[in-house]
Write a structure and sequence with these properties.
This protein is mainly α and 727 residues long. It has five domains: 11-92, no CATH class; 98-175; 191-200 and 216-381, no CATH class; 447-579; 609-725, no CATH class. 58% of the residues lie in helices and 6% in strands. It contains 28 helices and eleven strands. A hairpin with a 7-residue loop joins strand 5 and strand 6 (248-251). Helix 10 packs across helix 14, helix 13 (319-335) packs antiparallel against helix 14 (342-381) and helix 26 packs across helix 28 (709-725).
Length: 727
C-alpha cells in the first residue's frame, strides 16, 4: 500500500486509506500471537472515536506503542492518525451556512466589502469542492443569483450584512460581522491602555451607513446583556448614548462587564491626572460636609482599585451615593466643553456607561433585597395562627403594607424556599417545616414547633362539636328504645371518636396519623422543648377519649337527661318499647343545622330594599362565600373557627366577664358592618378589602385594649363574613 503525500479530498477517502492500511497489516501482525491481536482492537476503536475527540486518537496511539507495538507499528499508526486528523480539521472548517461562508470569503479577500457576482462564483466553487464533506452544499451548485440575493436580504434584515446598490447595477456586500472581531480586540486593548478611544460610529467606512447596524439604547443594551448575553454572537450593535454623545460600536461577543470595566478604567485614568485629581476630590468632599472622611476614603479606594477587575460598591452604604455624585460632577464639567477632543468624548461615554451599569446593579441588588425581605415575611407568616397553610393560602400572603408577597418573589423562588425549609435538617432531626396531607389531597405546611400546639387547639375545638353531635345522636337512639355498643364499651367508644374526628376535624385526624409525629415527640422529649404529655404518654399516642376529654358515660348521661321522665323508669320504658306501635326508622346522622342568633335577625325599622338593592345584597353574599372558602380551612366551619380564635383573644377568667367582653366585641362588629354595608361593592369586595376593614376596626381605641391583635383581626374577618352570609 502506498502512502505518498497527496491531497485528501474527503473524510470518506481517508477512511478508505485507513481501512486498507489496517487490513493489509493485520495478517502480518496476527502472526505475532495474542498480543498483536489485542493491539488490533484499539485501532478499530480509535477509528470509531475519530469524530468525537482528536485527543483520544493520540492517546490511543501512545497507549498502543507503550504497551504492545514495535517502532515500525507505531510509525504506521502515527501516520494514520496524522492523516485522519488532517481530514478531521479540514472537514470541521467546511460549513453549509451562507453567513459563515461569507465571513470566510471576507477574511480571504482581506476586506469587508465583497462584489456580489464574485461571491456567487466563489460560492459555486466552494460547494463543488466540499460537497462530499457537507451534502447540504448541493443547493449552491446551480443556484441562481436571485435566490442568493434573496437569502442575503434575510441576513440584511438581521443586520449581519448590508447590500449596497450601485447606479451601474452592481451590488456590493458589506459583511458587518467581519468588524466584530476587530472591535472586540479594541475593547481588550482599552483595558491595558485606557488612552485608546472607544469604537465610535464615526469609525465605520463612509460607504457603510449607520442604518446598516442594529441600534440599541445604552440602557436597554446594559439591561438585556446583564440578564442574558450571547457571547458567541457575531453581531455588531450601534449603542445610542444619551445627551447627544456619539454612539458606540459594541460587538455582542464582548461581555458587558468588559465594556463597563473599560469605562471605569478610563474614568480612573482621567482622575489620576494632576489637573483633575484634586479638583474632583474637593468637589466630592465639599458636597458632603458631614461625611468628608468617608468621601475621601471612597475616592482613594476607587483610584487605587486595579483596572483588571470590576469595581464593586456597597449599595447599602454611602459608596453608591458618592459614585453618583462623582459621575454627575464629571459629566457636568465635560459637557460644558464646546470643542471636545476625542479624550473628552471618551470620558463622557465612560461616565454614561458607568452610570447605567451601576444603576442596573443597584436595581438588581434592590430586587434581591426585596425578595429576601418578602421571604422573611413569608417565614414569619407561616408561624402565625392558624399555623397550618395550604399552597393556595401561601400564595395569598401579604406584607405589612397589604401587598401580595407572591410577585415580590417568583414561583421558582417560592418552590426553592419551601423545598429548603421542608428538607434541610441538622443533627438528623426533622426539618424546620413539616408537610402533611388530608384525605382530599390538600397539602399543609406547618412549623414543627407548632404541631402539638395546633393539635391541642384542634382537639379543644373538636371537643364541643363532637360532644354535641354524639349527645344528639345518642338521644335519638335512646328515644327509639335502642342502644349502641359505644355507650358501654370503651374500645367501641375509641373507634367512634376516631370516626368523629375523621368527619368533623380532618386536619386533626391527619396530624394524629402523620408519620412524623412519633419522631417529633422523641425530639421534644430529648430536647428542651415543650412537654408532650398532652399528646403522648409512655411514647404512645394518648387515647382519643383522653385527648378530647370525653367519656361515654358523661355523654350517655347528658342524652338521658334530655329524655322524658318515663324513659328513666325501667318498667314503664320496657312496656313502652313493647307496645309502642311507632315504626322504628334507622338512625341517620344528620349534619347539624346552623343556629341563628338574635344578632343575625335584621332590625324591624330597617327600610325595605328594592330589587336593585337585593341584587347587590346577593352579589355581596356571593363574594363573601368565595372569601370564606379561602379563609376557612378544609373540613372546618366559620363558627368553629370563631370559637377557636375567640379563645385566643378573650383572656377573661370568669364566665360572666368572658361573655360580657365577647358580647361587646360582637356588638361593635355588627354596628360597624351595618355602616360599611352602604359602601361595600361586590366588585371591590375581596379578601384584601375585608382585611383592611377588619384592621381598621381593631385599631379603634375600644379594641386596642385587647392584646392579641392578630387573632382578634381574624375573628373580626370571620364574624363579618358570617353576618354577610346570613344577610
Amino acid at each position: 500500500m502506498s502512502y505518498q503525500k497527496k491531497r485528501v479530498n474527503s473524510p470518506c477517502f481517508a477512511y478508505k486509506v485507513l481501512d486498507c492500511a489496517i487490513f493489509s497489516k493485520s495478517l502480518a501482525i496476527a502472526q505475532n500471537g495474542s498480543v498483536a491481536a489485542f493491539f488490533f482492537f484499539p485501532l478499530i476503536q480509535f477509528m470509531d472515536s475519530v469524530k468525537n475527540s482528536k485527543f483520544r486518537l493520540y492517546n490511543t496511539t501512545v497507549y498502543c506503542y507503550n504497551s504492545f507495538c514495535s517502532i515500525n507499528q507505531f510509525n504506521l499508526v502515527n501516520n494514520l492518525v496524522n492523516k485522519i486528523l488532517y481530514v478531521y480539521n479540514y472537514s470541521m472548517s467546511v460549513s453549509a451556512n451562507l453567513g459563515t461562508i461569507l465571513r470566510q470569503y471576507s477574511k480571504k479577500q482581506g476586506s469587508a466589502f465583497i462584489n456580489f457576482r464574485e461571491f456567487c462564483d466563489y460560492l459555486k466553487k466552494y460547494a463543488s469542492r466540499n460537497l462530499e464533506e457537507q451534502s447540504e452544499l448541493v443547493q449552491y451548485l446551480e443556484i441562481p443569483e436571485s435566490t442568493i440575493l434573496k437569502e442575503l436580504e434575510d441576513y440584511q434584515n438581521k443586520h449581519e450584512v448590508y447590500l449596497i446598490q450601485h447606479n451601474n447595477g452592481k451590488i456590493t456586500i458589506a459583511c458587518i460581522t467581519a468588524y466584530s472581531i476587530y472591535y472586540a480586540n479594541k475593547f481588550k486593548e482599552i483595558l491595558s491602555n485606557p488612552q485608546i478611544p472607544f469604537p465610535c460610529i464615526n469609525d465605520l467606512p463612509k460607504q457603510l451607513p449607520s442604518e446598516a447596524l442594529e441600534k440599541k439604547s445604552l440602557e436597554d443594551a446594559v439591561n438585556e446583556w446583564q440578564a442574558s448575553q450571547n457571547t458567541k454572537s457575531p453581531k455588531l450593535y450601534c449603542i445610542l448614548m444619551p445627551r447627544d454623545i456619539p454612539a458606540l460600536l459594541v460587538p455582542e461577543c464582548v461581555p458587558i462587564h468588559f465594556v463597563t470595566r473599560d469605562a471605569m478604567a478610563k474614568i480612573r485614568a482621567m482622575l489620576k491626572k494632576d489637573e483633575y485629581h484634586d479638583y474632583f476630590q474637593k468637589k466630592v468632599r465639599v458636597a458632603n460636609p458631614s461625611k468628608e472622611i468617608a468621601a475621601q476614603a471612597f475616592f482613594t479606594k476607587f483610584l487605587q482599585h486595579p483596572d483588571s477587575s470590576d469595581q464593586t460598591f456597597d449599595f447599602s452604604g454611602d459608596a453608591f451615593y458618592f459614585w453618583n455624585q462623582l459621575c454627575y460632577f464629571i459629566r457636568l464639567d465635560f459637557e460644558k466643553i464646546k470643542d471636545r477632543t476625542i479624550e473628552d468624548t471618551n470620558v463622557l461615554q465612560a461616565v454614561a456607561i458607568s452610570e447605567v451599569w451601576m444603576m442596573t446593579l443597584k436595581e438588581k441588588a434592590s430586587r434581591q433585597q426585596s425578595k429576601e425581605n418578602a421571604l422573611n415575611e413569608l417565614r414569619t407568616a407561616l408561624g402565625r395562627a392558624p399555623y397550618f397553610f395550604s399552597m393556595e393560602t401561601i400564595l395569598k400572603f401579604k406584607d405589612s403594607k397589604g401587598a401580595l408577597l407572591y410577585g415580590q418573589y417568583s414561583e421558582k423562588d417560592l418552590k426553592e424556599f419551601l423545598q429548603k425549609i421542608t428538607t434541610e435538617c441538622e443533627n438528623n432531626e426533622l426539618p424546620q417545616v413539616l408537610v402533611f396531607k388530608i384525605e382530599t389531597g390538600t397539602r399543609y405546611f406547618i412549623y414543627k414547633n407548632k404541631v402539638f400546639q395546633l393539635a391541642i387547639r384542634l382537639a379543644n375545638e373538636a371537643h364541643d362539636t363532637i360532644e354535641k353531635h354524639l349527645t344528639e345522636k345518642w338521644f335519638k337512639v335512646l328515644s327509639n328504645y335502642e342502644k349502641l355498643p359505644e355507650m358501654k364499651s370503651e374500645k367501641d367508644f375509641e373507634n367512634c371518636l376516631k370516626k368523629e374526628i375523621h368527619d368533623y376535624s380532618p386536619v386533626l385526624h391527619a396530624l394524629l396519623n402523620a408519620n412524623f409525629l412519633t419522631m417529633l415527640n422523641y425530639e421534644i422529649d430529648r430536647g428542651s422543648g415543650e412537654p408532650s404529655f398532652h399528646i403522648f404518654s409512655g411514647g404512645k399516642l394518648v387515647p382519643y377519649s383522653e385527648l378530647l376529654m370525653l367519656k361515654n358515660t358523661s355523654i350517655l348521661a347528658n342524652a338521658k337527661m334530655m329524655l322524658p321522665f318515663w324513659y328513666t323508669i325501667p318498667v314503664i320504658s320496657w312496656l313502652a318499647s313493647i307496645f309502642s306501635k311507632k315504626k322504628r326508622k334507622p338512625v341517620r346522622t344528620k349534619t347539624p343545622q346552623k343556629e341563628f342568633t338574635a344578632d343575625d335577625i335584621p332590625d324591624d325599622d330597617e327600610p325595605q330594599k328594592h330589587s336593585k338593592s337585593m341584587n347587590k345584597k346577593d352579589a355581596v353574599q356571593a363574594a363573601a362565600k368565595d372569601i370564606s372558602e379561602s379563609l376557612v380551612p378544609s373540613g372546618s366551619t366559620i363558627d368553629r373557627e370563631l370559637d377557636s380564635y375567640e379563645k385566643i383573644w378573650n383572656k377573661m377568667i370568669t364566665k360572666e366577664a368572658h361573655n360580657s367582653l365577647l358580647e361587646d366585641v360582637n356588638c361593635l362588629i355588627r354596628d360597624y358592618t351595618r355602616k360599611i354595608m352602604r359602601t361595600i361593592s361586590a366588585q371591590t369586595f375581596d379578601e384584601s378589602r375585608l382585611r383592611s376593614l377588619a384592621e381598621g376596626l381593631v385599631k379603634t381605641p375600644n379594641m386596642q385594649k385587647i392584646k392579641e391583635e392578630e387573632a382578634l383581626t381574624i375573628y373580626v374577618e370571620l364574624y363579618m363574613l358570617r353576618l354577610l352570609l346570613n344577610g
